Amino acid sequence: MEATTSYLISVNKQFSYYKTLGEKALEQLQPEQLFVSANEDTNSIAIIIKHMSGNMLSRWTDFLTTDGEKEWRNRDEEFENDLITKEDVLIAWNKGWNCLLNALENLQPEQLSTIIYIRNEGHTVIEAINRQLAHYAYHVGQIVFYAKLLKNTNWNSLTIPRNNSHSYNEMKFAKEKSVQNFTDEEIRRLK
User: Fold this and answer.
1) What is the DSSP string of 17-68?
2) Minimal CA–CA distance to 117: which of 49, 50, 51, 71?
């Protein structure tokens, strides 16, 4: 398999993994917990999701042909909460992720070295994808951390549970070596 094709498969799996991780964190919360913020300078989970969705829609709409910072985007408004229900939050979440995943699905390996622009700064498509993957992983990490704090002791671990590393490694090393993306097994486990 060509490196460019392998890269596209890998990043699709990475984005899907972070989407699933965020969803599994959200499932553990009561609706009102999505709107909790620790202080004036802290974003609630709902606001983090509203920002992610706005960023995704701006970056991935007409990904190859228009600047990733769309004229219609109002980034500052993404940090003002107008979402009311958990359903509103999930609609914003899915709208952003669907835009991203659809754009990636239509991307061809030969387009990875194409130059695209974000705020008038040129990026190869690979650089733009890596930039956004890091950005969304950062925010999903915030969501998971915040959700875990809000759940306190009632948290269902999304990764290797505390004090289970040894048994997890034993299970992994008991299997034959294989070539696969780590997200394949992780997404199956989370679902």
Assistant:
1) HHHHHHHHHHHTS-GGGGG--SSTTS--HHHHHHHHHHHHHHHHTTTTTS-S
2) 71
SS3 call for 174: coil
> Residue 187, class by beta-carbon neighbours within 10 Å (0-12 exposed, 13-18 middle, 19+ buried)?
middle
Q: Nearest 5 degrees, angle CA 52-CA 58-CA 60?
A: 95
What percent of the chain is predicted at pLDDT more than 90? 75
Q: Taking CA 73 as the corner, what is the angle to CA 71 and CA 78, rounded to the nearest 5 degrees? A: 160
Residue listed under structure tokens 């009632």: 154
Quote the CA–CA distance of 57 and 51 in Å, as a whole number: 10
Could you give the maximum distance between any two Cα atoms of the chain, in Å?
54
Nearest-10 Cα torsion for 148, 151, 154, 160 = -10
Residue 180 has pLDDT above 90, yes or no: no
Amino acid at 54: G
Q: What's the whole-model pTM score?
A: 0.91
What's the rounded mean pLDDT across residues 38-55? 96
